[in-house]
Design a protein that fits this description.
By secondary structure, the chain is an alpha+beta fold. It has one domain: 3-Layer(aba) Sandwich (Aminopeptidase). Helix content is 32%, strand content 22%. The chain contains 4 helices and 5 strands; from the N terminus they run βααβββαβα. The chain has helices at 11-28, 42-50, 105-119, 134-142, and strands at 2-5, 56-60, 66-76, 87-96, 124-127. The chain has a 5-stranded mixed β-sheet. Keywords: Acyltransferase, Transferase. Pfam families: Acetyltransf_1 (PF00583).
């Protein structure tokens, strides 16, 4: 397995994998996510691929087939005047093809993202997990992540 920055030829496969993640989210929160839609257009993905502040890393097999990805965003802190300034690498989305789960692709991607964060001078790696996505929570806890904050909601509908 090789992990590298995404390139334009990865876009069709990225759409397939984004669809797998969307389906998981739509099953957990059908009130928010629309099954069968796409998160990004081809043009948006092309722009992200070229944007060093929003790197997309892909794990590929020997033939170059993308088996997983990590969409990331470099973020500069603080959110307010009372916080120490620092840089973080936010994982906006991490997916491993459902056929490849359990084969350490996610662990390899996460390890790569941590190393990239260090190389980029980041203080931390962060992400959000939807309530009800217990397999993702368990995976990230296994990777050493801890809950930093909780976001709560009150649905008015």
């Amino acid at each position: 397995m090789q992990i590298r920055r995404a390139v334009d030829k990865d876009i069709p496969r990225l759409h397939e994998l984004l669809g797998q993640v969307l389906q998981i989210h739509a099953e957990i929160r059908p009130d928010i996510f629309i099954s069968g839609t796409t998160k990004y257009t081809d043009e948006e993905l092309r722009e992200m691929i070229r944007n060093d502040a929003k790197p997309i890393y892909v794990a590929t097999d020997e033939q170059g087939m993308c088996e997983g990805y990590a969409f990331c965003q470099l973020r500069e802190q603080p959110f307010s005047n009372n916080m120490v300034p620092f840089r973080s690498l936010f994982i906006d989305d991490l997916c491993v093809d459902e056929r490849m789960r359990g084969q350490h692709v996610g662990e390899s991607l996460f390890a790569f993202v941590k190393e990239e964060a260090k190389r980029l001078g980041c203080y931390e790696v962060t992400l959000n997990v939807w309530e009800g996505n217990t397999s993702a929570e368990k995976f990230y806890e296994k990777m050493g992540m801890k809950t930093k904050e909780r976001q709560m909601e009150y649905i008015l509908a």
